[in-house]
Amino acid sequence: EAGVAQSPRYKIIEKRQSVAFWCNPISGHATLYWYQQILGQGPKLLIQFQNNGVVDDSQLPKDRFSAERLKGVDSTLKIQPAKLEDSAVYLCASSPKDRYNEQFFGPGTRLTVL
Amino acid sequence: AQKVTQAQTEISVVEKEDVTLDCVYETRDTTYYLFWYKQPPSGELVFLIRRNSFDEQNEISGRYSWNFQKSTSSFNFTITASQVVDSAVYFCALSDLGDTGFQKLVFGTGTRLLVSP
Predict the structure, then answer these.
(1) pLDDT band, residue B58 (cuts 50/70/90)
(2) Closest Cα partner for A47 from A86, A89, A75?
């Protein structure tokens, strides 16, 4: 079974630029999550999708971050414009329907904002 | 509100020593799940264990063991006879229904374990 795929693995941009990350969850997984992990901290949930609907985006900085999950499969997370404090690893995870406790994580995208 | 506290920021041990990583949690729910994840230098989160709040039995898996005590809201992780390959950041996490009605996973700040030869 293929795992959660993310791209790119690394990205370096300058502040005020835009950036987008892509995630392809495990086939058939209804729930998709985006986490932000700042260096030295644990992952923090940014947004959770159930199919293509948003379940929880309470910690998503909506003035600059946006996410979508068209067709309930893969997802993109965008930052526009980026700030220095957005430097972090962005992790995508997915879980099967009704088994929300079984989250499978992707390798993450490491973002550096200069 | 959900909260996970890992008070140990970094632990250094010599190979073959036993080491315990502490985890204390807070939740208002009576049904919840506790997890441990390993994050090696490669960055990917590796699932180690999940326990539900109704199962307080301790668990052993090879050199790993977990001690779940609801009375003290703790879920500690012990590595016996540590090895260099155990060097990683270990995260404790809690999942409960939170405010959305969907399970929400909250992580602690992690404990970095350094095992030297």
Answers:
(1) confident
(2) A75
Q: Are B9 and B57 in contact (CB under 8 A)?
A: no
* CB contact at 8 A, B23 and B4: yes
Closest chain A residue by Cα to residue B45: A105
Least Cα distance to B104 among A12, A58, A40, A11 occurs for A58
Cα A39 to the chain's mean position, in Å? Answer: 16
Mean pLDDT over B21-28 rounds to 96
Write out chain A residues lying below 8 Å of B102, CB-based.
31, 48, 50, 55-56, 100
Residue B54: alpha-carbon gap to chain centroid: 17
Which chain A positions have a beta carbon within 8 Å of B98's beta carbon? Answer: 56
Instruction: Flag if B42 and A40 touch (Cβ within 8 Å).
Output: no
CA distances from A59 to A34, A36, A112, B9, B69 (A): 11, 10, 20, 24, 30
Contact yes or no for A69/A52 (Cβ under 8 A): yes
